[in-house]
């Protein structure tokens, strides 16, 4: 097969030329002149992906925004000589990548229900092979001879717990000004409270700060300044009470809660950093924060966690090699 190039086209005239070349050759699917011309006209304004072979169109795909987080695969065509060679799949991959990057969460596509026409049966099989799921059939959406099958696909990337853990890094850059919705903050706090604690003493408590003047007041006592652009903060509180005989596990308890918070925040797209050393030093910034927040005397502020969307990528720190820190069946040194 000749070299194929998938590209996004932005020039409306070029989009229209590609759409016309492909759709006019696919009369089995786009035989009705009126609706074909409508697709060609509308394609001018839609995100447009073309498969080109030696600068000639082999196929194209258009997306159409249908809601704040939803997008539709509005029209797609591949010339017969390039079908069954991965052209449609490659166009779809490029479109999907675009949709994910643009923040869309679901993609839909409509076609004629399976069992009516051979060509459309193949189209149904193709969409299913891409991962689309049957959502609903609307028998008269187009007309009774063409029942409309709507397919849906989630664009949210499923991240495994291990992938999430491995992608967490402390973020010390600037935050975007976007507010953190209360439902996100509540989910993050709940993740923190779900952490294990010694003898289930639950010695960790949390205060989320998203009120602007209060946030400013807290940030103003942090010197040298950190997290100054964060739109929200979580203050981690501990009660240093014994859990078992004279043993107090408060530090372990809040450490587990903090890690849960960092991971939950990351899973919702927020960055953070564990600021403990900075606020619990001799200058006791933590006590000033506790005062501002009216924290009861038997509780102590031990850490602050900014929560917000990162403006830049975090810089992953260097970690020691696996073999220097983890072993099977006994301690090992270099000489062993
Ligand atoms: C107990 C504790 C205290 C920390 N205190 C601070 C701090 O005061 N300031 C800061 O910038 N980072 C602080 N960190 C973050 C560490 O510097 C960071 O976790 C470490 O450099 C490894 O980087 P990573 O989180 O990207 O894996 C703290 C981390 C822990 C566990």
Task: Walk across the major sheet and give the strand order.
Answer: 1-2-3-4-5-7-6
- Residue ranges: pLDDT <50 for 5 or more in a row? none
Q: Give the DSSP E fraction (strand runs of 2 or more residues).
A: 15-25%
Distance between the termini: 55 Å
Query: What overall form do the CA principal axes indicate?
Result: elongated
**Biggest pleated sheet:** 7 strands, mixed
How large is the radius of gyration?
Answer: 28 Å
CATH class of the largest domain: Alpha Beta
Element pattern in H and E: EHHEEEHEHEEHHEHEHHEH
**How would you state the average pLDDT, rounded?**
95
User: How many individual domains?
Assistant: 2
Number of DSSP-assigned strands: 10
Strand and helix layout:
Blueprint: E1 4-9, H1 12-23, H2 33-42, E2 48-53, E3 56-67, E4 70-78, H3 87-101, E5 106-112, H4 118-130, E6 133-143, E7 146-154, H5 161-167, H6 182-193, E8 204-209, H7 212-220, E9 232-238, H8 250-267, H9 285-292, E10 300-307, H10 322-325
Parallel strand pairs: 4-5
Antiparallel strand pairs: 1-2, 2-3, 3-4, 5-7, 6-7, 8-9, 9-10
Helix pairs in contact: 1-2, 6-8
The structure holds flavin mononucleotide.
């Amino acid at each position: 097969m000749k070299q194929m190039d998938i590209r996004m086209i932005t020039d409306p005239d070029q989009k229209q030329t590609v759409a016309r070349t492909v759709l006019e050759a696919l009369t089995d699917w786009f035989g009705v002149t009126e609706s074909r011309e409508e697709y060609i006209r509308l394609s001018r304004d839609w995100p447009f992906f073309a498969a080109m072979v030696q600068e000639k169109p082999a196929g194209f795909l258009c997306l159409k925004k249908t809601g704040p987080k939803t997008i539709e695969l509005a029209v797609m065509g591949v010339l017969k000589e390039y079908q069954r060679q991965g052209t449609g799949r490659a166009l779809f991959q490029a479109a999907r990548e675009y949709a994910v990057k643009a923040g869309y969460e679901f993609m839909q596509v409509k076609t004629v229900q399976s069992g009516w026409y051979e060509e459309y049966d193949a189209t149904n099989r193709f969409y299913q092979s891409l991962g689309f799921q049957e959502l609903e059939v609307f028998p008269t959406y187009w007309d009774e001879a063409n029942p409309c099958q709507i397919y849906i696909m989630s664009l949210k990337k499923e991240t495994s717990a291990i992938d999430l853990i491995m992608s967490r890094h402390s973020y010390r850059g600037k935050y975007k000004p976007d507010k953190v919705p209360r439902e996100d903050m509540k989910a993050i706090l709940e993740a923190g409270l779900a952490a294990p604690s010694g003898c289930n003493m639950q010695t960790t408590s949390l205060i989320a700060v998203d009120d602007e003047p209060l946030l400013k007041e807290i940030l103003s006592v942090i010197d040298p300044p950190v997290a100054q652009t964060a739109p929200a903060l979580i203050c981690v509180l501990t009660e240093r009470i014994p859990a078992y005989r004279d043993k107090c596990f408060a530090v372990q308890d809040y450490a587990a809660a903090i890690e849960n918070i960092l991971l939950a925040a990351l899973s919702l797209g927020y960055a953070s950093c564990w600021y403990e050393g900075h606020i619990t030093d001799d200058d006791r910034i933590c006590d000033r924060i506790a005062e501002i927040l009216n924290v009861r005397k038997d509780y102590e502020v031990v850490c602050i966690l900014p929560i917000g969307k990162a403006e830049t990528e975090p810089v992953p720190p260097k970690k020691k090699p696996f073999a220097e820190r983890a072993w099977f069946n006994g301690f090992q040194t270099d000489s062993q």
